[in-house]
User: What shape does this take?
Amino acid sequence: MNKLDDIVEKSENDISYADGKTSRKRRNLLKNAGVFLAELGILGSLTFSTPKSIKTEERNFAKANSTNLSSCLIENQQNSALTQIIDVAKINSYNFNYKTAVLNKTWFSNGYVLEYKFKDGVTARLAKISNKSIAIPQANKEMQRVGKAVVGKYVKNGFEVSKQTDISDKALNIKINNGETGFYWWLEGKGTAVDPKYMFNWASLFKNRALTPEGIYSTPISGYNTTGWFLTPSPYWDFSVLNGDYGGKNVWLRKDLGWAFYYYPQLVSLVYVQLIPANKVMYTQPASSYLKKLYNFGEKFYDTRFNTDLGNFLVSIGQSVNEPADLWAARKYQDYLLTHANKYRWIVGDGILVADYSWSGKPSVITHASLNHNLAEINFLLRLGDSSGISLAQKILKGIKSGEKDWMLQGDLNYAYYGPKEGYHGKDYKVLTLRDLKVTKTLLSDYDWGEQYIPTIEHLIQCKEGNH
Assistant: This one.
């Protein structure tokens, strides 16, 4: 591993743009999206990618704190948990300055607490507790609090939830039985947390989902080999609910409708920033019977859709609130996606389609390439706007355009391309792919070269809507 100074100096030229023709707004966002931090490394290593525009004081802070931060933690990607590797009697807490918040992490004999203090007074707290109860203090009378707690036990490839509790402004004591673990999170601030008129959006966020410091646990998808909730890399549901895609109003980062709509997405993004660095990706822990039947895949496989959903979420948050950490983490994932696409892909005409999955147990298998996965990848790469990512997006767009007529059915689209022998087939999602297509069309309009692909995307939209 290079020394930190060498990495910083070498990374001065890491950020480049596709052809100088992307929108000025997008280029300015990227210039300001310095990837100056890496809160976690592996066994003491800490890497940075630092564009020229980074502030001197941020670089100096990163250098000054690198030894303490990197020696405190190791990323344990096997269970997506942060594991302490030092004596807590000597060091039991640390602080880290994000641009939008200050993080304090403290370990106790029975767990740990992460507290994020955002710049304008809202505080978030997440914790993992393994004693007999979770004690929630009463909120300050001037504050409003929203949050959730879950209690359960770890099972193979998941977490079996036995109890869920809403955390309000009042003091609570939540019992934890022997062998169980408890998690909680809350947001606390002055003013209205959630406007009652938009409670539908807020309540929908937590349907069969639980935010924890280890990530979001979700009820298992049909056919996944776990008896508990599984740790999902994907915040697609959160993104969609807040955007009003499943009913209700678009409340995405709308502080005027309640500050919780503004800070909850930021909290989710900062939690996942801590989970990405080691492998640049989050594997799906439980095996899928679907992938087992098709390709004999086992547990801990790579799902491009789940991870790219996270990448899209991080870029959207990072650009909206100007948080470099989110964009740094998104670029970590982009590195992985580029490597995957170089190996696991189908050549279609003068372009490619990227395989949906890969698994270390079957490294030579190239799976099918679905339209929705490939559109999500295009949208992520165009949002991020790096030259290497745009190059891949253009290759995928060429692949989709080359097979334009093959995707199309009467009033619907084929689900995926299964290679030259099987071709295009499969029942597509009713709404998901259509939403992806509309986002792609919007993002392509930001690029001068995008005009050549918009007609293809429009034809697919018309076909999906039954107008072709």
Summary: The mean pLDDT is 81. The two ends are 55 Å apart (CA to CA). The longest helix spans residues 324-343.
